[in-house]
Amino acid sequence: MPALHTLFMEAISEERVTKVSRRTLLGTGTKLAAGGAAAMIALSSPAFARLVAAQAFTDDIDILNYALTLEHLEYAFYRDGLAGFSADLFPEGVYDNLMDIRDHEDAHVDVLVDTISGLGGTPVEEAMYDFGYQNVAGFLAVAAALENTGVSAYDGAAAAIENVDLLNAAGSIVAIEARHASYLNLVNGQDPFPAAFETPLNRDEILAIAGPFIVG
Q1: Of 112, 10, 30, which is closest to residue 66 (Cα–Cα)?
Q2: Biggest CA pair distance of the chain
């Protein structure tokens, strides 16, 4: 069985080629509170209850699917959200940067799916989501919340990883997620690097934050 790190690096290499091809084809052509309120309303959803039912990681594939669940959520957020807004509604340059973040999340999904499949696992599928924002300010606030949560999720799951090779591979993703979080903090008028150390969150804590956005 190929090492996890090898599978990740092969998938990342393939995605880079795909991304270059895409770019050639396409050419160059109330804030957090609002999202939080919507999330609290969704706490009672059946989908959230099912997610909370299983908390412990069974193996590294389970961890990969946990990461994939979050990457699906993030990619869908940017894909669908940006399609509903025009660039002129954002501060100059922000929309283009968000499109780059969207593409990063898409790449993370592809890499995780390829790796899980290569290890003989079954990748989890994209779910249905409700992010609760009503305008650009709400969208940006939810984006910052998702990115910061994603960083804490990767850091929290690291303690359960059995294969050391996976740490290097996951680190190549979480570093980018941290850059997203820092940028979105800045866009939202917050400290882009508020602490010297990141706060890892366990599975229960992450599901309590991200789970309510999953509605089916």
Answers
A1: 112
A2: 50
**What are phi and psi for residue 188, nearest 5 degrees?**
-85, 10
Judged against a pLDDT cut of 90, whether residue 112 lies above it is answered with yes
DSSP state of 124: P
Mean pLDDT: which of 101-105, 113-117, 195-199 is highest?
Answer: 101-105
pLDDT, residue 82, reads 98
> What are the tokens at 16?
């880079």
69: nearest Cα among 82, 52, 86: 52
Main-chain phi, psi angles of 129, to 5 degrees: -130, 155
Give Cα 151 distance to the centre of its chain.
9
Residue type, 27: G
> Using CA atoms, how far apart are residues 49 and 56, in angstroms rounded to an integer?
15
Dihedral sign for Cα 135, 19, 63, 202, please. Answer: negative
Q: Give the end-to-end CA distance of the chain in Å, rounded to a whole number.
A: 34
Structure pTM? 0.76
- With 0-12 / 13-18 / 19 or more C-beta atoms within 10 angstroms meaning exposed / middle / buried, residue 32 is middle
| Structure tokens, 196 | 């010297």
CATH topology of domain 4-10+31-213: Ferritin (1.20.1260)
Instruction: State the Cα–Cα distance between residues 214 and 42, nearest whole angstrom.
Output: 8
The single-letter DSSP state of residue 133 is: -
Domain boundaries, the chain: 4-10+31-213
